[in-house]
Amino acid sequence: MAVSGFFAQAFVGAAVAQSLPPSVRAQGVTVSEWSAVQEEVRRLAAQSGNSERALAAIAERLGVQHARNGGVDLGALFEGLEARVSRLSALEQRLGELGIGNDNARGAAIVSVRAAVDAGDLDRADRLLSEMTEADVASAERLQSEAVDRRNRAAMMLAARSDLARARGEYREAAALLHRGAALVSAPEAKLLFFLAEAEALREGAALGDYQALRDALGVLRDYALPLTPTGSEGWRQIRDGMVSTLYRIGEAQNDVQALSEAVEGARELLRLSPRRGDPDTWAGAQWRLGNALRHLGEVSRDRGILQEAALAFQGALEVYTREHEPVYWVWLQNNLGNALRLQTEFGDRRTLSRAIECYRLALSGADRATHLDQWIAVQANLAISLRMQGGEANIEESILTLRDVVALRDRRRTPGPWAYAQLQLARSLAAGTQREPSRRDEAIVAARAAETMFNRLGQPTLLGESRELLAQLGGSR
Prior knowledge:
Layout: H1 3-9, H2 22-25, H3 31-48, H4 52-65, E1 67-68, E2 71-72, H5 74-98, H6 104-118, H7 122-142, H8 147-167, H9 171-184, H10 188-203, H11 211-225, H12 234-254, H13 257-272, H14 280-301, H15 304-320, H16 327-343, H17 351-366, H18 373-390, H19 393-409, H20 416-432, H21 440-458, H22 461-474
Antiparallel strand pairs: 1-2
């Protein structure tokens, strides 16, 4: 029995509800963890209308991918599973398009594909689509008069297979299928759509730590998509914007100065092409992206001048994204401005730290905890870090209380990385407060160990090292 088929059946019947598929049992995943996965599958199936068996098969594959250190990263698994719901919906829509027409055999084959997906037999669905694709490709080569139509249909088949591959988490396979689809279509507009979808599929690899996939996506945008659009056109700007975003993600994830420098130059180019008078919102968005790239470049390269440029870019964006015009953007920009100012404190100017704290407090005055909880939490965490840096009994106390609240609000299963980072920051603030209350040392050790365990599980060496260094300082090393 195929892996996906086994897992789909594991969700049928109460008697089998607690069983573990062999592929995930081999990774050390527990029954209790898998029960949570089963519950999430049922919830998403009911919410989206997608086949529970198909989602079950996808969950099994994700379970193997996200198994780490004798368990499963439920947060990453749930996030991946929720993202793949849209791919199943896209697959269903594309199969509907492929089934239109008078070709009864094709219509029957599409029915079989749908049945395979609904049954959770994704391997069979892919085999059927592959057979249909290859049949169309061969026919196009034999029958020149039908070549264009059949090539376009084959490209649609490949696009459908790419949807299926992305639903299964096979982003590189999806990208290869889309690249092949681009070669089959002749219209430049159609080729462009395939290349953009290929880059999007490759960017999904970043969630699994495959940063080479981000670099490959950058190459697709630069070498294939960009030459298909007139320089300076709206489509060209959108592709350049995607390149800047991809470069920034590479630089942020790997502290890559070269990638961040290229992101800065790309953002400056977009800013030159977006005059404020003609389109203030586009201009402000370009300022925001430039500020983000400058802020991280300044942090990595330890260049105060670059950090000052970042602050100026955020301030420029705030002139357009005002509290009244774009309240959510305004909060984020105030937070980002605070970050750029706080980092300048490392160069000895304590005034920038006070200004950063003012920015965070101002951002919190406009943040809506009820509707934008993640935003509210992020600003609170940055404020707490800054208060600890400023020092003083009252500031340390507020920092501790704020970070305790942040840790309580972070969902360990869904956002394990941010949860662990909040634990690390709480441990640091508690350590700073041990002189007044020595008993806080034990709480600091507990928080630092929680961070250490999660960073080790997530494979984040830098933050893991920081957690262990703090534990050593506290005398809590294992």
